[in-house]
């Protein structure tokens, strides 16, 4: 195998792209990593900003010819190190591909370039009376390409499902630079294997997604919501379980523990979450014709379950305030200690009490602060482990706690990652979850797509 020839590759990239779309040296520094702490990032050969699928393909052909690693990159809001630059690799940042190509009201689909922000798609759909439900906490910044590549979730998954449930068709640049379209614009289609599903959640390791067609829904009703605080986690979980078992379907069922509430109130002076509670539940309904009644019934269930405070909101302003505060979970906890390791464990809902009890035990035994919040209705929580990166004992304890939390989730029949992805952060734990046979099968799938392993090598698997 001939060694990579960086200078020649750089010269070829300069021929493939206008100068303004190619960054090298210190000018590339802003694009080295995502929002995770403790994940390594290399110094790339170049960061490129293609403006079309053809330009992406031209870049990939240069990389393939020289066997240079490629890191597809969206808005770098990822929390697992998946978008971090690789030493001497090429970062392909898709954020310049930010055109909403069509919103089709007849077929109820939208087609967007990969760099379109999630919130921009949601607004474009809403402008014509349609609805794109996936709403990761980062939705004002994250891109659709990143959402598809991580199979992002959000607050509304409990009712509507994750990004992958809405993806119909992808335009993808493969590892040899060829351009393919997987899936179809229709609701159904079973020709060949479902490669669209395989690419969803592939974290840039199987292809570079350049265009996405998603299915849309009719707009829901204006949401109504209720928040409630509890003196114990157990009481909050029991009340949430009664709501899930009822014949009404919440569109949001979120959880924050005491440390999260305190961190969010400290981080954002505008936030006025009720202090001094052990747990807070945020519940909404957007069901046409019955959102109001749903929420009134949820309020009764919460009161009967021993909530200390119950606050119903039928106005969008108050609901937005609560949801905005909830979206601060990750940055607020990160700020509280300087650095954080962000867990994304998911367990069957029946195992949530065991998960939360186990987190308390791990926090106590290893003397690490853990604040936990997230998508209770999905069984997907984000324990955030705080540490001071300048204190080696704290770094070590945080990493040990991180491993124990993942092991606990797997023991409870769950997974290391519900929505953030594996990236670099959780790679060491994949074997425990998949086992050697499945891991080998997955590596052979990767080899079929990317025989020379140039697409985000060392991430995910
Ligand atoms: C405050 C905050 C809140 C968050 N809340 C949520 C949440 O509620 N739910 C959730 O799921 N996540 C959440 N996240 C994590 C993150 O926003 C998501 O993982 C998001 O999908 C990443 O999108 P991005 O455009 O930033 O992608 P990046 O971080 O740039 O990349 C993420 C991964 O996707 C790959 N990738 C990116 N674009 C492409 C492409 N076009 N083709 C192929 N591969 C690509 C990258 O290589 C990388 O592996 C949150 C993050 C923050 C900071």
UniProtKB/TrEMBL annotation:
Residue ranges of domain FAD-binding PCMH-type in the record: 40-219
Reported cofactor(s): FAD
A GO MF term: FAD binding
Keywords: FAD, Flavoprotein, Oxidoreductase
Short name of one Pfam family: FAD-oxidase_C
Source taxon at top rank: Bacteria
InterPro entries attached to this UniProt entry: FAD-bd_oxidored_4_C (IPR004113), FAD-bd_PCMH (IPR016166), FAD-bd_PCMH-like_sf (IPR036318), FAD-bd_PCMH_sub2 (IPR016169), FAD-linked_Oxase-like_C (IPR016164), FAD-linked_OxidoTrans_Type4 (IPR051914), Oxid_FAD_bind_N (IPR006094), Vanillyl_alc_oxidase_C-sub2 (IPR016171)
Protein name: FAD-binding protein
Species name: Cryobacterium cryoconiti
Lineage per the UniProt record: Bacteria, Bacillati, Actinomycetota, Actinomycetes, Micrococcales
